[in-house]
């Protein structure tokens, strides 16, 4: 694979000539790139010819060469400031004379020449991980070194590990980390129990997914008295695995957990933050075993008033492990262990949920699906994941604990006002007004009304729309777009509250087995309970930023694994037709989400045969140049599966026709007679136009 030859450019005179910035490259498939600059709202577009051999993730110095009429900036890279340490994953192409790595990612438009290390055996067709070490001027390919060989391309384990490597995520523990975890004492001494509040005699159980192996939260309940008005007073315990008892700050296990920051949930596996000795053994709250916890305990009446709360270290003994399905069966009228306790928890949880939404919380119940996998990891079917009251039961009590722990950490106990001491918060900013306006313009075409100018009323309006779309064909596309209007939740030591939950104070306390911020919160909470002074704010802010970054990276890897399994599932369905709705539109294609499976694929703009279509960003539609026909978000369409590419994790569709909302009838795309004359210029013009469009499409983002 070659690269376009660099062309010298001449900076324009005047204002543009002096505008130089440093930013990070976001490369696209064509080799063109966008440079993200912190001080600019818009990214700077750089044509591949002006990229100076910069690659995705590189820090570069870029000079603005053109100010376009629409306000967009175009520039040229003048210096690569720092090469990205990014891993490149691909398939080895081994010949007698040379070795190249053909990257899977479309973000690197060249093959990597591999500098073979002494004694290194590289086999053609294997998947490997490489790092770029050099790229000399005039060379068509960068030079790289293989840092790991993953195995045969196409093997499930190889491909899942390749996804982890692509996003610079570790897929296995180094032996020394495993060994350190194995040496952690598992015995719970009487001395340790004496330091803790003992809940082993209180009814306690866990509720988790059927396939869960690490149980990091448990609930306890007991009636302690009658309230003043005759209603019962309940002691509710939210018990969280005491990971920080076993993992000391600065230890090799702690450093590894800090580096990973989160467990990663791929379609067919969990890549844990902590070694199995901790996640599935010492810290997992398995039934009928004494376990150490960090707990939030509330004395609560039937009206949800909390009369007293306590935070501290405990020892528990879970009486029962429930799956969500088992708990749900009891909620829906079935018999089972601890029925009275589960029903009481559910009653309180539903009351808390109702009050939370009344106070401005927003709900997005977008339908999710999971794959049925055979022993080799191949998808054999799809089933829908439904959130029911048993899920909400756990959610509400975890939210309660997170909220009250954040209030303890962030409020002055004497004044009730904001404290100056350092704490870790989970924050969520209010939505962007421009995105809300676009959302309003979109939902009105379905007959739903949303006033973006009423910022104080956004949550109520959102919830009203979410209720109205339940069970309708437009539910997923509207809820997806609604989620995109929201800001991204992050970790920070600067508290601005959590907009989506309508909580002025919120943190993550309840999942320390799989999230490092929860371990940070446990340590800070223990420190302040002992009367400690405010912790080092810059240190914790750096950790917050790292954890937020790793969370995004893990989510990207999870999505990549889903896309891979989608493509693998659809390989056996090439040529079949399905109904779906348009879920996205770009310069280069129309994305369609299938109705039954929620699998998403793309119809290339150039493959919509009845006209030449352009993306009109103002109305968010693909518009036919000759016919004026429009395809917009939410439109029901009929597609045929054209192909499924595992290496690109992409599914290609062909558009067969549109579907009438009212009748459900399929209307095939009309035949369009392209203009032709005796010279044939009409057809030639169409071909040239299509070729030009293909070149332009590759520059879309």
List strands and helices in order, with pairings:
Layout: E1 20-27, E2 33-36, E3 44-46, E4 59-67, E5 73-82, E6 88-94, E7 99-103, E8 112-114, E9 126-134, E10 143-152, H1 156-166, H2 175-182, H3 190-194, E11 197-198, E12 204-208, E13 217-226, E14 232-241, H4 243-246, H5 252-260, E15 264-266, E16 269-271, H6 276-282, E17 290-301, E18 306-317, E19 320-323, H7 324-331, H8 339-358, E20 368-373, E21 379-385, H9 389-410, E22 425-427, H10 433-443, H11 458-469, H12 475-485, E23 490-492, H13 516-529, H14 537-570, E24 577-585, E25 589-594, E26 600-604, E27 613-616, E28 621-624, E29 630-632, E30 636-645, E31 650-659, E32 666-668, H15 681-697
Parallel strand pairs: 3-5, 8-10, 11-18, 12-19, 26-31
Antiparallel strand pairs: 1-2, 1-4, 2-3, 4-5, 6-7, 6-9, 7-8, 9-10, 12-13, 13-14, 14-17, 15-16, 17-18, 20-21, 22-23, 24-25, 24-30, 25-26, 27-28, 28-29, 30-31, 31-32
Report on this structure.
The chain is of the alpha+beta class and 701 residues long. The chain folds into five domains: 14-82, Nucleic acid-binding proteins (OB fold (Dihydrolipoamide Acetyltransferase, E2P)), CATH 2.40.50.140; 88-153, OB fold (Dihydrolipoamide Acetyltransferase, E2P), CATH 2.40.50; 176-429 and 488-560, no CATH class; 433-485, no CATH class; 574-697, OB fold (Dihydrolipoamide Acetyltransferase, E2P), CATH 2.40.50.140. Helices cover 28% and strands 29% of the residues. The protein is built from 15 helices and 32 strands. The strands form eight sheets. Strands 11-18-17-14-13-12-19 form a seven-stranded mixed β-sheet. The protein has a five-stranded mixed β-barrel with strand order 1-2-3-5-4. A hairpin with a 4-residue loop joins strand 17 (290-301) and strand 18 (306-317). The two termini are 21 Å apart.
């Amino acid at each position: 694979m070659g690269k376009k030859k660099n062309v010298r450019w001449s900076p324009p005179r005047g204002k543009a000539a002096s505008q130089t910035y440093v930013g990070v490259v976001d490369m696209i498939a064509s080799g063109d790139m966008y440079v993200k600059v912190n001080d600019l709202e818009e990214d700077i577009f750089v044509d591949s010819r002006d990229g100076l051999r910069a690659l995705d993730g590189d820090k570069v110095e870029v000079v603005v060469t053109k100010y376009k009429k629409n306000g967009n900036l175009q520039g040229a890279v003048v210096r690569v400031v720092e090469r990205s340490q990014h891993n490149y994953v691909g398939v080895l192409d081994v010949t007698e004379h040379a070795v190249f790595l053909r990257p899977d990612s479309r973000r690197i438009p060249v093959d990597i020449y591999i500098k073979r290390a002494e004694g290194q055996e590289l086999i053609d067709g294997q998947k490997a991980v490489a790092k770029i070490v050099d790229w000399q001027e005039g060379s068509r390919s960068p030079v790289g070194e293989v840092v790991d060989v993953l195995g045969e391309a196409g093997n499930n384990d190889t491909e899942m590990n390749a996804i982890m490597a692509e996003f610079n995520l570790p897929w296995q523990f180094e032996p020394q980390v495993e060994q350190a975890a194995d040496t952690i004492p598992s015995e719970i001494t009487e001395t340790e129990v004496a330091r803790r509040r003992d809940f082993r005699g209180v009814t306690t159980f866990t509720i988790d997914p059927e396939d869960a192996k690490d149980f990091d939260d448990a609930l306890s309940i007991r009636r302690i008295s009658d309230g003043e008005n005759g209603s019962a007073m309940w002691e509710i315990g939210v018990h969280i695995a005491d990971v920080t008892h076993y993992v000391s700050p600065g230890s090799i296990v702690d450093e590894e957990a800090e580096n990973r920051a989160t467990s990663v949930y791929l379609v067919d596996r969990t890549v844990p933050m902590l070694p199995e000795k901790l996640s599935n053994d010492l810290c997992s709250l398995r039934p009928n075993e004494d376990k150490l916890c960090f707990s939030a305990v509330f004395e609560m009446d039937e009206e949800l008033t909390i009369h007293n709360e306590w935070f501290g270290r405990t020892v528990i003994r879970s009486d029962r492990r429930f799956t969500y399905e088992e708990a749900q069966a009891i909620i829906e009228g079935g018999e089972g262990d601890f029925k009275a306790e589960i029903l009481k928890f559910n009653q309180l949880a539903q009351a808390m949920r109702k009050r939370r939404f009344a106070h401005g919380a927003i709900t997005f119940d977008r339908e999710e699906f999971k794959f049925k996998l055979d022993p080799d990891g191949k998808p054999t079917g799809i089933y829908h994941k439904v959130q029911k009251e048993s899920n909400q039961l756990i959610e509400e009590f975890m939210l309660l604990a997170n909220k009250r722990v954040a209030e303890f950490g962030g409020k002055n106990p004497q004044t009730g006002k904001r404290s100056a001491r350092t704490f870790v918060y989970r924050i969520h900013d209010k939505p962007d007004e421009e995105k809300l306006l676009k959302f309003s313009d979109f939902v009105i075409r379905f007959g739903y009304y949303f006033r973006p100018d009423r910022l104080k009323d956004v949550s109520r309006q959102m919830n009203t729309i979410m209720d109205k779309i339940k069970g309708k064909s437009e539910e997923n596309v509207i809820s997806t777009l609604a989620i995109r209007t929201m800001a991204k939740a992050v970790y920070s030591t600067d508290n601005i509250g959590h907009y989506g939950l309508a909580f002025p104070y919120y943190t993550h306390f309840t999942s320390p087995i799989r999230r490092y911020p929860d371990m940070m919160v446990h340590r800070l909470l223990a420190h302040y309970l002992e009367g400690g002074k405010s912790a080092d704010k810059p240190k914790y802010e750096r950790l917050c930023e790292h954890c937020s970054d790793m969370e995004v990276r893990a989510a990207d890897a999870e999505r990549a694994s889903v896309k891979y399994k989608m493509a693998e599932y659809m390989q056996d369905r090439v040529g079949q037709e399905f109904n779906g709705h348009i879920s996205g539109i770009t310069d280069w294609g129309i994305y369609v989400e299938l109705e039954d499976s929620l699998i998403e694929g793309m119809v290339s703009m150039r493959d919509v045969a009845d006209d030449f279509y352009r993306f009109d960003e103002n109305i968010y539609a693909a518009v036919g140049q000759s016919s004026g026909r429009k395809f917009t978000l939410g439109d029901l369409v009929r597609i045929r599966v054209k192909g499924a590419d595992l290496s690109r994790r992409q599914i290609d569709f062909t558009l067969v026709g549109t579907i009438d909302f009212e009748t459900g009838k399929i209307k095939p795309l009309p035949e369009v007679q392209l203009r032709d004359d005796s010279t044939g210029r009409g057809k030639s013009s169409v071909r040239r136009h299509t070729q030009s469009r293909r070149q332009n499409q590759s520059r879309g983002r």
